[in-house]
Amino acid sequence: MTVASADGGREQDDDFVMINESAAHASSAMAQDHTLDLISDYVDGVSNELGAISLEIHDRPELQYKECHAHDVLTKFMASQKGWTITRSASNIDTAFVAVYDSGIKGPVVSLNAEYDALKGIGHACGHNLIAVASVAGALAIAHLMEQNQLAGRVVLFGTPAEEGGGGKIKLFDAGAYRDQEVDISLISHPGISSDAVLVRTAAYTAFKVEYFGKEAHAAARPWDGINALDALITAYSAISVLRQQTEPGDIIQGMITNGGLRPNIIHAYSAGRFVVRSSTRARREALLKRVEACFEAGALATGAKLKLTLGGSYDDHMPNKALGGSYRHCFNRLGGDIPIGSIDMLQSATMASTDQGNISYAMPSISPNFWIRSEDERGAQLGGPHTPDFERAARTEEAQQKAMRVGKALAATALDVLTRPELLHEVKREFEEMRHADKEARVKRGVQ
C-alpha cells in the first residue's frame, strides 16, 4: 500500500522511513537513487564472473561440511578482490570462511551469509549456488561504495556450510564468529517459486530419534515373559495422532518407524523411529516438544520398556526485521521488483520450511528475502519448487542468475542504507530488542523459559 502526504505530495512506500516531501527529503531520495545506480553498474560489471562461479558450484554439488570445492572457489575469488581479508576454514570448520572488508573508520558492521551445500541425490535443488553469488555480489558492491565514498564501518561475508540440516551458521555463531566481528545486521536471500518477498518467516523445528528397549520372549508360547518395545512405540505414535487434534495452527508433528522388530513371532525387544516437531515460533515449538515427549514417556510407562530420546538438528524460526525489510523493499522495487507492503508481504511469505538463519535472527537483526525464479515447462505450467529435480535445473539458468544479481543489488543497498543512516540502524535495533522481549514473555507464558 502507498500513502499520500497530507500536503498532496507524491505517494510513498508506507514501510520506508520518509518524513515528508521537503527539499531535504527530495535530495535524500535523489542521492539514494544515485547510489542504487552505482550499485547496479558495479554488480553488472561482475555478473559474468559470478555467473561462472554459480555454475561451478552448481555442477559440483557437495553435501554438508564437505563443500571443499565451493569453499576453495569462493575464497580464491574473494582473495583476489582488493582490500578483502580472508580466513579460510574459519572457526575450525573446514568449509566455512570469513571475508572482511574494513574501511579503517569505526562504524556499523553489516554482514551477509553465503550458502553452498547441496542435497543428497538432487544436487543444488535448493539453489544455494544462487544464494552464494547473491551474497558475494552484495558484499562486493558494499565494499566498492564504501571505498568510493570513504564510508565508515565494515562488511563481512560469512561462508556458511551445511544449511541443509547441519546448522553451519549455528556452529559459526557458537564459535564466536559473529561476535568477534561485532556484527550489527545479517542479510541473506533464498530462491523459490513463490512471489518475491522480504519479510519471510520460517518455522522452528526440532528433529529427534526415539528408541525403546524391551525384552524378547516367544510371542505365542510365553508372551507374558516379554516387554514389547514395538507396543511402546505404537502407543506413543497413537497418542501423538490424538494430540494433533489439540495443537494450534502451525504446529506440525511428523514421524516414521525405522525399526519395528525382527519377526512377528518374537516379542520385540527393540523399536525405533525418527520424528520432527515444527511450529511457527521457537517458544511454541518448545512447548509442543514437551507435549510430544510426554507421549513417548506414556508408551514407556504403559509397556515397561525403557525410553531413549536423542535430540538431533534444531532450527529456530526466522524473525524478519521490518525496518530492514522496508529498506530492502524500497530498493528492490526500484530495481523493477514488486514486493507488497509489510503486512501483506508477511502474510503471503510465511512458510513451514526451516533454516539456520532463524537462529541468527534471534541473535541480531536479520532479513532473508525470497526471490522468484522460473521453474516451469515450455507451456508455462508450474514445475517443482525447492528440493525437487525441477528446481535443481531451474537454479542453473541464466535468468535465475540475473534474478540473483538483482537481489545482490538490493541487499547491498539495504546495507549501505544502514551504514549511512544512523536513524535507520537505531530503529532496526529498537525493533530487534522489542522482538527479543516478546519472545522472552512468550517463553515464560508457555513454561519453556
TrEMBL record:
GO molecular function per UniProt: dipeptidase activity
Domain of life: Eukaryota
Residue ranges constituting the Peptidase M20 dimerisation domain according to the UniProt record: 207-299
A matching Pfam family: Peptidase_M20
InterPro entries per UniProt: Amidohydrolase (IPR017439), Bact_exopeptidase_dim_dom (IPR036264), Peptidase_M20 (IPR002933), Peptidase_M20/M20A_hydrolases (IPR052030), Peptidase_M20_dimer (IPR011650), Xaa-Arg_dipeptidase (IPR017144)
NCBIfam families in the record: amidohydrolases
Family: Belongs to the peptidase M20A family.
Protein name: Peptidase M20 domain-containing protein 2
Organism, scientific name: Salinomyces thailandicus
Taxonomic lineage from the root: Eukaryota, Fungi, Dikarya, Ascomycota, Pezizomycotina
